[in-house]
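Page 37, top half.
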Amino acid sequence: MDSRITSRFAHTTITSHVVNKADRAQEATFQVEIPKTAFITNFSMIIDGVTYPGEMKEKASAQERYRLALAKGPRAHLPPRATGRNLEQFQVSVNVAPTANATFELVYEELLKRQLGKYELMLKVQPQQLVKHLQIDIHIFEPQGISSLDTEIAFMTKDLADALTTTQNKTKAHIVFKPSLAQQQKEPGKLDTILDGNFIVHYDVNRTAVAGDIQIENGYFVHHFAPRELPLLPKNVVFVIDKSGSMAGRKIKKTKEALLKVLDDLKPEDHFSLVAFSGRVTQWKPVLLQASEEHLESAKTFLSNTQALGATNINEAILLAVRMLDESDSRKQLPSGSVSMVILLTDGDPTEGETKLQKIQENVKATVAGRYHLYCLGFGFDVNYAFLEKLALDNGGVARRIYEDSDADLQLQDFYQEVANPLLTMVEFQYPDNAVELLTQDSFRVFFKGSELVVAGKLTPQAPDLLSAQVRGQSNTQNINFQTEVNVVNKEKVFEDSEYISHSFMERLWAYLTIQQLLEKAVSASGTAQQSLKGRALDLSLNFSFVTPLTCMVVNQPNDQGQRQLAMKSMETGKQYMEHFLTLGAKASWYIVFIIISVPGTSTPLSAGITTPPIPVPLEESLKSMERAPHFILSLFLRKKQKEILCVDVKGSPFRPLSLISDPVQGIEVKGHYKDFLDTFSWLQVSYKTPEVQVYVNQDSIIVIRGRGQHEKSTSYQWQKTFSLGFSGKIRTKGKNHKKEKTTKKKENSMLPSAFRLHSSFSGCGQHFPS
C-alpha cells in the first residue's frame, strides 16, 4: 500500500502480487476495502505478463454489458458494495494458470475532510494470510506545516511496535509499516495472520494566516480556511426524536443515552427544546428555553419518560420544531447573531399524517425558508437515506447514517460535536474577477469549529502575479473581513519536489471537489436542472477517470475466461446491504402469525396461517416461472377441514406499514412493518376501537396502550415475563417466552384474532433468508 497526501489530497495505490505454485489452475481473488468518500481512478491486472487495463465508461451503458456477462457464468462478480460505516469493498477474481503469476493494482483518490480538528486517512489491512513482502508507505506533504501526527492501528501489539517507523520534519512525514512473517503470525508456527483491521493516520496543520492558506500548482489553486480563536456563537437547537414503534429496544435506549449527554454539553447561552413524535407529536415546551440547570433537568425527565410505540409523523414533527423556532424568535427570546438548527433522528419513512415524501420535502423547505439548518440522522442500515439526505440538503444541513451498534450513542454524540460550536455564518470567498475561473462552492451558511472550508479553482491566463482573496463572514453581530495575498510563482515552486506529490494533483483535487458538489446539488434539483448537473458531473468523471455514481470501470479478462469485471461506486440507500446480507448466510429467524377472520357472505370462518416454511415448497409447473420464491405461504383452513395453499409476494414499500386486516364495523385493525430485504415483520400492531386498546409487538417487548389523549396509559412487557391483563372483561392478553396469545369476547359472533405467536427462526418459501 502506498499513499501520498499533498495538501489534504490523498492518492493511494494498492498492489498485490500472487504466484500459483500448484500444478493446476487456481482462482486468485483480489479483495480490498476502500473509503466510501474515495473515487477509484484506475484498476489493472497483469496476468502471466499480459496487462489488462481498466476502461472508464458511463454506468448506464456499461451496466447492460455487465448484465450480459453475468448470464455467462458464475465468475462474473458483483460490483463494490458497502461493508461498514466508512468503507466499501472492491473484489475481483481470475483464474491463474499453473506456475503463472498475477499482479493486481488499484488506485483511488480522496480529499481528506477535517473533522473535530483532525484529518484522517484510513487504510483497511486485511491480507487474510501471511504475506512475505507486506509494506505500507504513507507520505504526507503539507506546506503549511504539520502540527500534530499520530497513528491508530487496530491490530497493533508489542511485537509489531518495531515494524512501524515514523519520520517527520516541519512540512513532511513518512510512515512505514513493514512487519516480518513472524510478526504477522497470531501464534508461532501458525499460518493465521494477526493483521486484520483499520490502519488510521490522524494529523493537523499549522495555521498562521487568519484568511486561510492558498496553494497553487500547475495553473490551479486551492484555498483552505479554518481560522482559530474566534468566539463561539450561541445556538438554538430543537431535537426532534422519533419514538415510533420501530425505535423500540436498542434504538430508543441509545438515543436517550446520547441525548442525555448532549444536554449536558449545552452551554448556558444556548437555547433548546425537545419534540418527540410517533403518530402524534408531543413537545417538551412550546418555545425554546435557555440551557439552565433547572431546564435541563426538566428536559431529561421528559426524555427519560419517552417510550417507543405507534406510527411515524415526520412532517408534523419537523413543522412543529420550525414553528417553535419562529415563536421563540418573534418573542425576542433568542440571542442576536445566534445559529438556529433542527436535529432530526428517525429510523423510517412517514406512516402517519402526510406520507408523500416529495410533499414533506416541499412543506419543510417552504417553512424553513432558508432561515434554519436541518440535520437528519437516519438510524439503522434500512432507513430511507435518500429521503433524509434531500430533506437535509434542501435546508442547509447534512444527513448522516447512525449504525445500530453498541456505540450508537457515541455516533450520535460525535455528530453533535461537529455542529455544536458554530464560529461564523454567511461566509463568502471573493477573488478578482479577471484572476480566477471554474470556482467550486464559494459561499457557506455556517462554519463550525474543528472543520475547514475549501475552495478550488483555475487561474486565468491574465491572472496577475499576486493573487488576492477576501473571506467575509458574520460573528455574533459583527461583520468580519479577512484578506490575504500570495505570489503565484513562489507558491508554484513549493510543489516542484515530485517525490511527495502525484502529477497535477491540484487539478484533480479541483475535479474531485467539483464532482462531489455537483452530485450534492443534483440531490436537491429536479427535471432539466438535475440532468444538467449530472451531465456536468459525468463529463468530469470521464475526463479525469473517476469511478463515481455516474461511471464505472470495465476490465476485460483473458479471452479463455470470457468475463468482464465491473467496478461501480456504491450508493447510500436504504437497501445498500441487501446483496451483501444475502451472500453472507447470516443467522436466520422466522415469524408465524395465525389469524382467524370471517369472510363476507359466508358464515364459515377461515383460519389463515401466514408462515415462511422451514423447507422448500414444491411449486406447480405454472408457478415455476417466478423470479424468486414467494415471501409468504398462506394456509387457509375451512371448518370442514378443507385446505387451500396461497403463495403471496409482498410488493409494498419496505418503509411503510402494511394493513393486514381492517374491519371498521367490528373496530379492529392489524398493521405490520415489513422489511423486504430481510423478509420479516419488524413490528405488528393490533388496534381495537371498543374498548380503545392497542397492542404493539416487536422483537424486544409487548406494549399495551389503553385510551387516548390525556387518558392514554401505556405499559411495556418483556418477552421473558409472564403476564395476564384484562380490559373491562372484554380483552385478555397473555404472553410468555416469545409466545403471545390473545382471546377476545366482544360479541358472540365477532371473529377477532384468537392466536398470535412469534418464533425465532425464519426461512423463505423455497430459499433461506437472513434475519
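Page 37, bottom half:
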Amino acid sequence: MEHEEPVVARNRPFYVAPLYALVRAASPVLRNLNIGGKLTVGFGILAALTLLVVGLNYLGSLDAVRSINRTTNLSAPSAVASARAQADLLRMLSAVRGYLALGEESYRDDYASAKTAFLGDMQSLERLLQERTAPRPDPAADVEQRMGELHEKLASWQPLTDQLFELRNDQLRREPALKLLVTDANPMIATIVGTATALILAQQKRDATPENMAYLADLASFQSSFYAMVAGLRGYVTTRRDGFKYEYEANLTINDAAWKSITDATVALTPNQKILIDKLSKTRAVFLQFPAQMFTAVEGEHAREDLYIFRTQAVPLAEGMLGILDEIANEEQQRLQADLGGGRDQLQKAQRIILLGGVAAAILGLILGLIFRESIAGPIQRLTGVADRVRQGDLAARAKVESGDEIGTLATTFNDMTAQLGSNLGDLENRRREQEQLALQFRRQSEYLGALHDTSLGLIARLDLTGLLSDLTMRAAGLLGTQHGYVYLVDEAGETLQRMVGVGVYAGQAAGQQLESKEGVAGTVWHTREALVINEYQTWPGRAAAAAQLDVTIRAIMAVPLKSDNRVVGVLGIAYDDASALEFGTEEVELLKRFGQLASIALENARLHTATEAAKSEAEEASRRIGEQNRALEAVSSKLSKYLSPQVFASIFSGKQNVEISSTRKKLTVFFSDIADFTATTDKLESEELTDLLNHYLTEMAKLALTYGATIDKFIGDAILVFFGDPETRGTREDAVACVRMAIAMQNRMQELRGEWAGAGFALPFHLRIGINTGYCTVGNFGSEDRMDYTIIGGEVNLASRLQSHADLGGILLAGETYALVKDEIEAEELPPLTVKGFAYPIKTYRVIGARTAQEAKKDVFSNREGDLQWDIGSALKGADRDKAIKALEHYLATLRK
C-alpha cells in the first residue's frame, strides 16, 4: 500500500526560506486544532491589524480636512469673487461702448446692472480678504493697498461714465462739425439762398434779351449748384461718407464757375441787384470758410467728443482696474494652490500610512496563508492528489492520515472507499471507455452536420462584419471540440494580416495584432495558400512572438485560408490547449475547409454591406455639409443684398457680371429726382427728426423703384438717381415707359406722404421735381481694386439732373428722346426748348400730364397743374353733384379773394 507523502519544496528562492521555517515551527501547534479554530486565529490577527491601519489613517486625514475646509471657505470664494469682478467690469466697459456706438437705452440698463454686480463683488472680495488670518504667500503683496487703488480708480470712473452718457445724448456737444453747421453755417446758407432767389426773381422781371436770359441761367446754375453743395456738405458732416465730400467739391467747382460768370457779366444791373450781388458776395465769402473747418472737425480725433474721452480716459481707468483685479486674482490663486498643496500633502501622508498598513497586512496574510496552506491546504492537496491517482486508475494509492481534524477523518474514509472500489471497477472501466468512444464519435458527427447547416443558413445571412467573424470563430471552435480560435484578415494594402476576432485564450489579446507573411501559423497559411496542421506546436520553429504571451499553453493548432475570387482574404485558425487530448486529423482538416468556404462567402457579403453602408454614410455627410454651406451662403448674401440693387446683386451672384473694374456704353433711361427747397424747409427740424423723415421718404421711393425694375444708383441727400437698362433690360422703349410710369407713381405717393406727415405733426410742403432723359451712358464698376461702385457717368446723366432742376413743383420733365419712346403710352405737353449749361444746343422738353390709359378714363376732365394749384373737374357732373361742385368752387374763390 502506498501513501501520499508530503512534498518537500525544492529549489525555493533564498528569500522565502525564513517564511517556510516559521511555517514549519507553527504547524505542530495548529495540527491538533480543528479547521474552525485555525480560521478563528488567522482572522482575529487580520482584524486587529485592520483596526490599527484605520486608526492611523483617521489621524492622518484630520489635517487634510482642515486644509480642504480653508480652501472651500476662503481661498476658492476669493478667487471666484475676483474673477466675477473682472467679468462685471468688462460688462460695464462693453455697455458704455455699446451705448456710445448705438445710443440704445438697453446698454445703459446693462451698465447699471453690471455696476451693481461689480460693487457687490467688491464687497464680497473685501470681506473674504479681511477674514483671512493665514500668512500671505507673497510677503511683498499688499492687498489693502491694491483695494485702495481700485477704489480710487472706480471713484474716477463713475462720474466719467455719466459725462459720456450726457455727451452721447447731446449731438451738438459731441459732434463739433455738426454744431458748426447748425449754429454758424445755416444762417449763411439761408441768406445765400434767399439773396439768390431775390436776384432770380428780379432778373425774371426784366426784358427777355439774350444777355438777360444768359444772366438768369447763370443765376439758376449758381442756385442749383449751391443747393447740391449744401446737400453734399450736410451729408458728409452727418454720415462722414467720402462720396458726399466729393459731391460738395464737384458742385463747388460748378458754383465757382457760375459765380464767376455772374460777377464778370456785362449785363446792366439795377441798383437793387447790385446791392444783392454785393451782399451775396460777402455772405458767400464768409460761408466758404466753414466747410474747411467742418472737414477738419469731422476728420480729426475729436470728431466724436464722447468717443475721444472714452478712448483716452475711460479705457485706461478700466484697464488699470482690470490689472489690479488680475493681481488680486493671481494672489488668491496662489493661496488656493498653497491650500490645495497642503491638503494634498496630508492626503499623501494618509496614503503612505494606508500603504504601509496594507503591506504589513499583506505580509501577515502571506504568513498566515502559508501556515494554513501547510496545515489545511497541504493535506487537502495531497488528498486531492491521491484522489486524482485513483481517478486515473491507481486504486492502490492511499492517503496518509496527518492530523486529527476533519481532514484526517476524510483521509481515513477515503482509504476505505478506495479499497472497496478496487475490487470491482476493472471491468466497468473497460466498458465505460468503449461506450464513451462510441458516444464521442456519434456526437461529433451530429455536431459537424448541425454546425455546417447553421453556418450555411445563418452566417451567410449576417451582414455585420464584427458579429459575423465572432460567430464564425466560435462555431468553428465548437465544431472541433475546443474554445480557442481566431480570424486574421488581410489589410486593405495587402501587406499584413490583422487579427479581427479571437475567442478562448486569444480573446485576451488586443484586437488589431498584425503578422507579416510567413510569420506564425496565420502568416504561413497566407503565404502558402494551403491548410496547415501542427499537432506539436510547442516544438514548431515557426511560432510567432505573441504566442509566448498566451495564458494557456497551446499544444496543437490548425488553420485554413479564407478565399475570395481565388485570393486569400483571411485565415481561420483553431487550437487545442495542453488540457485537451484531441488532435487534428484529415477529417478535421476537410471539415474546416468546407466551413471556411462557407465563411468566405458570408465574409464577402459582409464586406460588400460594410462598403455600401460606408458609401451611404459619406454621401449623407457630404449632403449635410453642402446644405450647411448653402444656408450660410444664403444668410451672407441676404445681408450683402441690402447694399446693392437687386439686379446688380443677382447678376454678381449668378456669375453674369464679374467684380472687376470695367465699364461699357449702353443706351439707358436716367431718372433724377429732388425735393424742392428741402434744406430750407427742414432747417427747423432736429437732426433725428430729419433723419427719420428722410429715411421714410427714401424707403418709399426705393420700393417703387424696385417695383418697376429700376437700378438704384445712389441717394444724394434727398435726391435720387436711378436708371433703367442695366444690368437687366426689357428693351430701350419698355425701359423708358417703365421709368416714366415709376415717376408718376412717385408723384402720387408723394401726395400721400404729405398727408401722412401732416397727420404726424410735420406740415411740410414737400414737392418732387423729376427729370428723365434717355441716351448713351458709360455704366460699370468704377473705383479701385479694393473698393468700387457700380454707377453711370456721362452727359446724358447731367442732362437728367438739369431737367429735374427746371421741372415744375410736383412735375415730371422729359427730354425729347425719352418722349419719342413713350409718346404712345404717356400724355405730355411740349414746352419751349431749354438752354442748359454744358449743352451747345437747346434741349426739347415735355411736361408729363399722365398715362394715356388713365387719361382715357378721364374724358372731358378739366385739369390744372401749376405750382401748388392742382385740380381736376369732370364735365360729366350732373344734378346735385354739379351744384355741390359749383358751391365748393365759389366758396374757395371767395376765400382766396379775401
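Margin note: Residues 305-391 form the longest helix (87 residues).
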